[in-house]
Specification:
The chain folds into two domains: 11-261, Aldolase class I (TIM Barrel); 271-341, Alpha-Beta Complex (Type Iii Antifreeze Protein Isoform Hplc 12), CATH 3.90.1210. It has ten helices and 16 strands. The protein has helices at residues 32-45, 72-79, 83-96, 107-116, 131-138, 153-165, 190-198, 212-219, 246-261, 271-280, and strands spanning 4-7, 10-13, 19-25, 49-54, 66-67, 70-71, 99-104, 121-123, 144-147, 170-175, 202-206, 224-228, 283-286, 301-304, 321-323, 338-341. α1 (32-45) runs parallel beside α3 and α1 (32-45) runs parallel beside α9.
Length: 342
């Protein structure tokens, strides 16, 4: 079982904080300046990683792909970043204090990224069944974050077997590859099943247009959250309709941090609760004046707030005991006020 993965500035483990990835995709619109602004904004919003994409158009059949953003050929012609831009972004991320990550969409792109010195690889759901490419990347000996959208359980099993066979260190990302999916299609309950079945760290790659299922994934055990990110949906990048703007992304990060702080599994009385407990609990009290030496009868005592005396649960245990002092009406009884049975 992979208990810990580290690369660059990033540590992913059971005990470490949730790692949050801002998926820049092509929302930079092919502009290195915009990409750098996205780096800064993602860091300010609380992301630990900003992820870009590397497409090599010559590795696709021309004119063969139409997706939600239009023709893939046209999108890449307009928005693809150059090799030099990726080189500069790696350095810029290092200086900005955020981890650069990139998804290669073919083995040749993985080779380019490896040559650039990336610390890890993120593979998209489209590569889940591309076992030759996954083997190729695994043999580079760097950690992998592997999305599982569009895959059957049997296909995930095959991919995990391939990666384990190569000795890879990897995170499996639960994912629904619809843009956007319906909430009924998210199935966050599969996250703990992935953890149990494959014994690896599990994350969640989210394509909804808001923050809620990403936060919910953390409650289900996700240790990595990937969310599409844009400076401004008005720029109409290919993935703008499933991307968060910086204030929304920051709100998601804050929600995740608050939630993970609340995920403890102990039950104890906290100091702040003790203050409330003292007045909110009930004590045994006298319902009338009780003289010293009197045997306590049920009609003499009851329970009232606050909880600074004999706890209410002992009410019936006091029947038949003898009081040891004069007790006025509405007195909170203490154990010193009663003795043994007569």
């Amino acid at each position: 079982m992979t208990q810990e993965i580290s690369f660059g500035r990033i540590l992913i483990s059971k005990a470490s904080p949730v790692v949050i990835i801002a998926e820049a995709a092509c929302e930079h619109l092919g502009s290195l300046d915009v990409a750098k602004r996205m780096v800064d904004a993602a860091g300010e919003a609380g992301a630990g990683i900003i992820k870009f994409q590397m497409h090599l158009p010559e590795e696709m059949v021309p004119g063969s792909i139409q997706f939600w953003g239009g023709s893939m050929d046209e999108v890449l012609a307009r928005f693809n970043l150059s090799l030099e831009a990726h080189q500069e972004l790696i350095q810029y991320c290092e200086e900005a204090g955020i981890q650069y990550l990139c998804t290669p969409f073919c083995a040749a792109a993985a080779d380019v990224l490896d040559h650039l010195g990336v610390g890890a690889f993120k593979t998209g759901s489209g590569e889940m069944t591309n076992t030759p490419m996954l083997r190729h990347i695994a043999r580079k000996g760097k950690p992998m974050i592997v999305s599982t959208g569009m895959a059957t359980v049997e296909e995930i099993e095959e991919t995990v077997s391939v990666l384990n066979g190569e000795g890879a260190r990897f995170v499996l990302m639960h994912c629904t590859s619809a843009y956007p999916p319906r909430y009924e299609q998210i199935n966050l309950g599969f996250i703990p099943q992935l953890k149990e079945k494959f014994g690896v760290i599990v994350g969640h790659s989210d394509h909804t247009p808001d923050i809620w299922t990403s936060i919910g994934a953390v409650a289900m055990g996700a240790k990595v959250i990937e969310k599409h990110f844009t400076l401004n949906r008005g720029l109409k990048g290919p993935d703008h309709h499933v991307s968060l703007e910086p204030p929304e992304f920051k709100g998601m990060v804050e929600g995740i941090r608050k939630l993970e702080a609340a995920l403890g599994c102990e039950k104890t009385v906290h100091p702040e609760e003790q203050v409330v407990r003292d007045w909110a609990h009930h004590s045994v009290v006298s319902l009338r004046t009780i003289s010293i030496g009197t045997i306590i009868l049920p009609e003499m005592i009851g329970v009232k707030r606050p909880g600074r005396g004999i706890p209410a649960r002992y009410l019936e245990n006091l029947y038949g005991l003898v009081v040891t002092r004069e007790i006025p009406t509405n007195t909170i009884l203490q154990w010193a006020d009663v003795g043994g049975k007569s």
